[in-house]
Amino acid sequence: MNIFVLLKQTFDTEEKIVIQSGLIQEDGVKFIINPYDEYAIEEAIRIKEQHGGEVTVVTVGPQRAEEALRTALAMGADRAILIHQADAADEHVTASLIAASIKDRPFDLILGGNMAVDSGAGQVAIRVAELLGIPHVSTITKLSIDEGAATLERDVEGDLETVQVGLPFLATAQQGLNEPRYPSLPGIMKAKKKPVEHIEAADLVLEAGTQTAKTAVIEQYLPAKKQAGRVLSGDISAQAIELVTLLRTEAKVL
């Protein structure tokens, strides 16, 4: 079974965001694999261990993204593809590049994370499925494959939906699907020798219009600092009156 996993390298969720001249500063920042993509990698490795086959991780980004690919290889993926894209790409362009790199290769299953923790977007994987013309199932929390078909459970805003679909298809991983493994020392050593294919975005054959972004970032800014809370005093009725007054006169929410 050939499985592709879509991966994004993101800021470590513990990193402090610094913006200068409207741009997020990356100097000295630690990058990690997007946490939702880790669920997808782990699930792909588990399926390979059960059914055999090969796991290929794919990402679009600068050279530093190879570090994230090497981590996925250390977890147990077999090979990796890094699509070099010098300019910032929106979800439309990123999905087009990934689909162009996969479309002529044999695959049975494509997995990705439900969303990216840095942008909050959950578009790329679904767009890839649309471009490849295959079914997609989002926010899955369980996946089993038997005789060319799959049964999936997906999170539907706190409820559970069961879906059956034939291969090939694409699914995005939700928290709860599995517990991603840590790379072992032997895995890290083996990852250094596993193949990473480098592709220049300009060398991919894309359909007309897919190289132009459809969205643009107009402005980036940090949220206002959280102000200290205020403790009301007096009996309950007096506190209630003061609270309503404050909501009307200061917060202006009533």
UniProtKB/TrEMBL annotation:
<keyword id="KW-0249">Electron transport</keyword>
<protein>
    <recommendedName>
        <fullName>Electron transfer flavoprotein subunit beta</fullName>
    </recommendedName>
</protein>
<comment type="subunit">
    <text>Heterodimer of an alpha and a beta subunit.</text>
</comment>
<dbReference type="InterPro" id="IPR014730">
    <property type="entry name" value="ETF_a/b_N"/>
</dbReference>
<dbReference type="InterPro" id="IPR012255">
    <property type="entry name" value="ETF_b"/>
</dbReference>
<keyword id="KW-0813">Transport</keyword>
<dbReference type="Pfam" id="PF01012">
    <property type="entry name" value="ETF"/>
</dbReference>
<dbReference type="InterPro" id="IPR033948">
    <property type="entry name" value="ETF_beta_N"/>
</dbReference>
<dbReference type="InterPro" id="IPR014729">
    <property type="entry name" value="Rossmann-like_a/b/a_fold"/>
</dbReference>
<comment type="similarity">
    <text>Belongs to the ETF beta-subunit/FixA family.</text>
</comment>
<feature type="domain" description="Electron transfer flavoprotein alpha/beta-subunit N-terminal">
    <location>
        <begin position="21"/>
        <end position="208"/>
    </location>
</feature>
